[in-house]
Design a protein that fits this description.
heterodimer; A: mainly alpha; 2 domains; B: alpha+beta; Cytochrome-c3 Hydrogenase, chain B; 49% helix; globular
Chain lengths: 354, 373
């Protein structure tokens, strides 16, 4: 639970003193859910705006700069527009699954957000299988994409969904194994303990060469996992129109869209936690002010998010078979070898620690 | 369960998919009827006619000056070269000798048109293989050419700058300076194109060995322009049947022998360099003189058949006029490069993946109004 910030502390105390324990627990859960939903919405809209500004910067354009100061409210306006749009769909779609699909995507994104350690104690659930939970949750998201593509009764959507399924299932392995490489150092799956270990040096420094390889594999696989260019097989607008969400409109489309950006943030957040010391400041310069941890965390995550945007606006798209070749013939064997190297380094105590 | 039922349960099935007429990769209203097995293309059947405007029939109604205006709307990316083709045909039929100044200006503007068309193609090529940023880079440089055109004749795309007998106006005083500025600018930007796309590993993987067209096939399908030249078929009309001032300049015909998508890409990049060199040879010594020779207000061609071919950005454009001596042609036929180039799509795309089809189609550089007319 949230403990570090004194206001949440006092709310917590007041709730537990004024009502029964179960009731207080329930209300607290609801409050946290609302807070996270707000973070989710704001972060999603903000990331969309950043993406558009970064894309514009790469493409010799200005980007959205009319609504609000420097276009800050542009995505709000877009969201309002999407909310007020008519929901159209295909007549022969499987209505139940068609309507269910966006929620799969968005709920899994939201669930993954719950274990992200924004700063000390600012983490909704600090469970002892944190990393496992994240990997497990992120692989559920693909069900939403598969359902959406399949149930909308459109061949382009179906091709997109199948591509996405193939891709996500393959790259899950790389994500899992590259994180596993780092867990060899920490010896724990719990995110707060992973951060604790990094007080004597970020894991990317502690694990040096294999850690850097693991990080590179993680970033490639993470980009693929979120279906972003150069791995945007599922959408591939020049090939499939809009891919799996061809038949979605209005807010249902916006769910897919927002979830993509939240997933990007989650991938960056996991990388920040596992490789770059989460909220820890470089060389411990602001250790005494814990609230600044949020700043450090977001700053590191944003650098990685920028990296992913950089990929997207620079590289051409891979073909679907090349995508699988890359994973199964290159990344996976490299990853397995990397784990052995990391195990040797940990066993021989060759990690760098300050 | 015996084996036969297993086989029937898990049979793979070819399915049919409609690519277009509204689809981002068909660049207009081309409709492709695809038969696909999973991701693999089994058959591509182009379905034309969505933007057919009977330009050839309308030509039978119009005077020769008016016909020039219609040709802008065929291959709108090389509109000036289309204009030039009709003007050359009419001038040849009338045995009219245009001044050297006209020839040189026509050639310079023709090559600028080619560069601008290839710029757009390069941007769209990148977009088709998924690199969206190229689109804006291509358009940035294309804008400068369009600005020159706008200053020269008032239009940016459908220029109508040529008339039978010469040009509609003389060039703007700024023309030479701005063209030189553009050449200097574009020489720094073309290497940037290579950095961004040509040398990219993913791009090379996507294009090398894809959509291979042999030289024999290129000839038998009537491929022309960069598509034919990438297969080793030397078919540059500018080289073999020079028109306007092209016999006075030295340039290399961009030839590759691989015949794959990457070769077609490289041929177009090299053509941009060659076009720059052609302009550079001519820009400094545009001869003085008249920009137009007087013709009758109503041009009547002598009885007979006349043919003229030019090299547009897409390949060989032929203009075939049958005249029976009156103010409009009895029959006018355009041999458009896009039509023949599209006809070989099925031949080279079958067996590839959907992504390959899109990349291959991008290097054919189709302009649909050119195919449908």
């Amino acid at each position: 639970m949230i403990r570090a910030l004194s206001i949440t502390r006092s709310i917590h105390d007041w709730l537990y003193s004024s009502m029964s324990e179960n009731m207080a627990y329930f209300i607290e859960m609801v409050l946290i859910a609302i807070v996270y939903l707000a973070i989710f919405a704001v972060a999603g809209l903000f990331l969309v705006l950043i993406e558009r500004r970064v894309a514009a910067w790469f493409q010799l354009r200005i980007g959205p700069n009319r609504v609000g100061f420097q276009g800050l409210l542009q995505t709000m306006a877009d969201a309002l527009k999407l909310l007020s749009k008519e929901l159209t769909g295909t007549e022969k779609a499987d209505k139940f699954l068609y309507n269910l699909a966006p929620y799969f995507v968005i709920i899994t994104a939201l669930m993954a957000l719950a274990v992200i350690p924004f700063t000390q104690d600012f983490q909704a659930f600090d469970i002892n299988i944190g990393i496992l939970f994240l990997i497990a949750i992120s692989s559920i998201g693909v069900i939403g994409i598969l359902l959406g593509g399949w149930s909308s009764n459109n061949k382009f959507a179906l091709i997109g969904a199948m591509r996405s399924g193939v891709q996500t299932i393959s790259y899950e392995l790389s994500i899992g194994l590259s994180l596993l490489t780092m867990i060899l150092i920490t010896g724990s799956l719990q995110l707060s303990e992973i951060v604790e270990v990094q007080k004597s040096g970020w894991l990317i420094v502690q694990g040096h060469i294999p850690a850097i390889i693991a990080f590179m594999i993680y970033m490639i696989a993470g980009t693929a996992e979120t279906n972003r260019a150069p791995f945007d097989m599922a959408e591939a607008e020049s090939e499939l129109g809009a891919g799996f969400h061809t038949e979605y409109s209005g807010m249902k489309f916006a769910y897919f869209f927002l979830a993509e950006f939240i997933n990007m943030f989650i991938i960056a957040a996991i990388a920040t936690t596992v490789f770059f010391g989460a909220w820890l400041s470089p060389f411990g310069i602001t250790e005494s002010i814990p609230i600044l941890g949020v700043f450090w965390f977001l700053a590191k995550a944003m650098v990685l998010v920028f990296l992913m945007m950089w990929f997207r606006w620079t590289f051409p798209r891979l073909r679907v078979d090349q995508l699988l070749t890359l994973e199964w013939k290159y990344l996976l064997p490299l990853n397995l070898m990397n784990i052995v190297i990391m195990a040797l380094i940990v066993w021989l105590n060759l990690t760098i620690q300050f | 369960m015996d084996t036969t039922t297993i086989e029937t349960n898990f049979r793979s099935e070819e399915y049919f998919i409609n690519m277009g007429p509204q689809h981002p990769a068909t660049h207009g209203v081309l409709r492709l009827l695809l038969t696909i097995d999973g991701e693999i293309i089994k058959k591509v059947e182009p379905d034309l006619g969505y933007i057919h405007r009977s330009i050839e029939k309308m030509c039978e109604r119009d005077t020769y000056q008016q016909i020039v205006h219609l040709t802008d709307r065929m291959d709108y990316l090389s509109s000036n070269i289309n204009n030039e083709a009709v003007c050359l045909t009419v001038e040849n039929a009338l045995e009219l000798e245009v001044p050297d100044r006209v020839k040189v200006i026509r050639t310079i503007i023709g090559e600028l048109t080619r560069i601008s068309s290839h710029c757009l193609w390069w941007g769209v090529m990148g977009m088709d293989v998924g690199a969206l940023t190229t689109y804006f880079y291509g358009f940035r440089d294309r804008e400068l050419i369009n600005d020159i055109f706008e200053e020269t004749c008032g239009a940016r795309l459908t220029m109508n700058y040529n008339v039978p007998g010469g040009l509609m106006f003389d060039i703007h005083p700024n023309f030479v300076k701005r063209t030189k500025d553009f050449i200097a600018h574009f020489k720094t930007k073309l290497p940037e194109y290579d950095k961004l796309l040509t040398h990219n590993v993913i791009f090379q993987k996507r294009t090398k060995g894809i959509g291979i067209l042999t030289k024999e096939d290129a000839i038998s399908f009537g491929a022309s322009g960069p598509v034919g030249r990438a297969s080793g078929y030397s078919c540059d009309v500018r080289k073999h049947h020079p028109y306007s001032a092209l016999d006075k300049v030295k340039f290399q015909e961009a030839l590759k022998t691989e015949g794959d998508t990457y070769a077609r890409y490289l041929v177009r990049i090299q053509e941009m360099w060659e076009s720059l060199s052609i302009i550079e040879q001519l820009i400094d010594n545009i001869p003085e003189g008249e920009y137009r020779v007087a013709t009758n207000a109503v041009i009547k061609l002598p009885k007979g058949e006349f043919y003229q071919r030019v090299e547009t950005a897409r390949g060989e454009l032929g203009v075939y006029i049958i005249s029976d001596g009156v103010k409009s042609p009895y029959r006018l036929k355009f041999r458009s490069p896009g039509f023949s180039n599209l006809s070989l799509l099925n031949h080279i795309a079958v067996g590839g993946k959907i992504g390959d089809l899109v990349a291959t189609m991008a290097t054919l550089d189709l302009v649909i109004p050119d195919i449908d007319r």
